[in-house]
Automatic annotation (TrEMBL):
InterPro entries: ExoX-like_C, Ribonucl_H, RNaseH-like_sf, RNaseH_sf. One of its GO terms (molecular function) is 3'-5' exonuclease activity. It comes from Ancylomarina euxinus. PANTHER family: DNA POLYMERASE III SUBUNIT EPSILON. The keyword Hydrolase applies. This is 3'-5' exonuclease.
């Protein structure tokens, strides 16, 4: 089944120096862009992360410091990537929890203004877990009947994710071939930030989703614990989380 698209959609996958959204960096990004007319384009970029790639990480994706030492940094190619995905909804495998938050961080670090909130996000892993509870390699085998060669390579994983979503639409009659629907279906929490540190409650109020203030309204915490804002801003939290927190603080300051 081909995707029913109103906007182009960019499937993407990141290979990184690690799994810490705040600290780690992209070493490879692959993007498969599908247009509403069915046209498919693939671009893959190697990136110099400007920090060492740990050996245990290289053992997973096979990319070493030597492989990327002469590649451009994200700051150098970020605008090219932003332009390529301009106007696109985004899709990936575990992308809502990892790839999208990390990509947003890289754009912020590079001072590239990309409004990610205007896009729909489809997380194929969430659809898979709601339906079958498996990994990407197993998903590819289960839905597409093929072994995933080159797993943990960004391009192989991205193309496999795209194929899996199309096969999911073929397999499950209750899945609608509509990006708005798939975005809502594959979203587990309604996040105010990408890392899920601040989420909307049932009433649409931003609440903290971690630590001693979990479940409490952000506005209330900022009023009752003035030092909490400074503590977050001065510690190892994602830049995008800090940006959202600052927007909430300024919104109330200007009321």
């Amino acid at each position: 089944m081909n995707l029913n698209l109103k906007n182009p959609i960019a499937f993407f996958d990141l290979e990184t120096t690690g799994i810490n959204v705040s600290k780690d960096r992209i070493v490879e990004i692959a993007i498969v862009k599908i247009s509403p007319n069915g046209k498919e384009e693939t671009k893959t970029y190697r990136v110099n992360p400007t920090i060492p790639i740990p050996p245990e990480t290289t053992a997973i994706h096979g990319i070493s410091d030597e492989d990327v030492k002469d590649e451009p940094t994200f700051k150098e190619i970020g605008k090219t990537i932003a332009k390529y995905i301009e106007g696109c909804d985004l899709a990936g495998y575990n992308s809502n929890r990892f790839d999208i938050p990390l990509l947003a961080e890289e754009f912020l670090r590079a001072d590239i203004d990309v409004d990610m909130r205007k896009r729909k996000f489809v997380d194929v892993q969430t659809i898979f877990h709601k339906m079958e509870q498996r990994t990407l390699t197993a998903a590819y085998k289960f839905y597409c009947g093929k072994d995933l060669e080159g797993a943990h390579g960004a391009e192989a994983d991205t193309l496999a994710t795209y194929e899996v979503l199309k096969s999911q639409l073929d397999k499950y009659e209750n899945l609608e071939n509509d990006i708005d629907y798939l975005s809502k279906f594959s979203t587990q929490n309604k996040n105010a930030d990408f890392a899920g540190m601040i989420v909307f409650d049932k009433k649409g109020v931003e609440t903290f989703n971690f630590g001693k203030n979990k479940g409490k309204a952000v506005e209330d915490v900022l009023k009752e614990q003035p030092g909490y804002y400074g503590w977050i801003m001065n510690n190892d939290f994602p830049l995008y989380t800090k940006k959202v927190l600052t927007e909430i603080k300024l919104r109330n300051f200007n009321m």
